[in-house]
Amino acid sequence: MRNLPAFTLAGYDKGRGKTVQALWFVVMNTVFMAWFCPARLRVALLRAFGATIGDGVLVRHRVRVLWPWKLTVGDHTWIGEGAWLLNLEPITLGAHVCVSQEALLCTGGHDHRAADFRYRNAPITVEDGAWIATRATVLAGVTVGRHAVLAAGTTLHKDLPELTLHTADGRRPVPVPA
Fold first, then answer.
1. Contact (Cβ atoms closer than 8 angstroms) between residue 70 and residue 15
2. Residues 65, 14, 5, 124, Cα dihedral to 10°
3. Given strand 52-53, what is the order of strands in its sheet?
4. Radius of gyration of the chain from Cα atoms?
5. Going by DSSP bridges, is the β-strand pair 104-106/84-86 parallel, antiparallel, or unpaired?
6. DSSP run (H or E) holding 170
7. Nearest CA to 132 among 158, 106, 152?
8. Would you say 112 and 93 are in contact if contact means Cβ atoms under 8 Å apart?
9. Spatial separation of the C-alpha atoms in residues 14 and 62, rounded to whole Å
10. 3-class DSSP state for residue 51?
11. Is the distance from CB of 65 to CB of 45 less than 8 angstroms?
């Protein structure tokens, strides 16, 4: 039986103090996510708050990033409208990665077997050339391999090998152009 009042943040490090956290939430919710904020400014804001961002990165509006200082993005990666990078732990996106509209990358979870529902968080890695399609979900502890594709609306709870397409019907090889 769950004892939710027993839940604590034990073992979870947000990585910055409350002032920086609060400042990020103000910036994210007033400027960063807004349609009028230029993509170049979004990248600059992420960098200013500690993200490591490569060259030629495109971050569209309505993107949410919980903690920028726990985000690494490689060159020429796109993050689509409404994507949510819920990074209680680090998220690493390689080069030429596409995270499509309203995709969710969630590094957080709970131990459903523990009465106190303690955290069971783990990082996410999306390797070079991978595509996380529209409204797909990547869960904590998962690595998406090079040039792998997670189909629209699907959920990934274990590693996806390189050159693999994951759909609701299963997995199969992905042909990759030279």
1. yes
2. 60
3. 52-53, 71-73, 91-93, 124-126, 143-144
4. 17
5. parallel
6. strand 170-173
7. 152
8. no
9. 22
10. coil
11. no
Nearest by Cα to 126 from 101, 100, 102: 100
Taking alpha carbons only, the member of 75, 76, 69, 131 closest to residue 105 is: 131
> pLDDT (tens digit, 9 = 90+) per residue, 25-84?
999 999 999 999 999 999 999 999 999 999 999 999 999 999 999 999 999 999 999 999
Q: Which residue has the tokens 């609060």?
A: 22
**Is residue 122 a contact partner of residue 102, using CB atoms and an 8 Å limit?**
no
pLDDT of residue 150: 96
Per-residue pLDDT tens digits for 67-98? 999 999 999 999 999 999 999 999 999 999 99
Eight-state DSSP code of residue 16: S
pTM: 0.93
- Specify the 3-state DSSP secondary structure of 110: strand
Burial call 4-24: b when 16+ CB within 10 Å, e when fewer:
eeeeeeeeeeebbeeebbeeb
Q: How far apart are CA 112 and CA 39, in angstroms?
A: 39
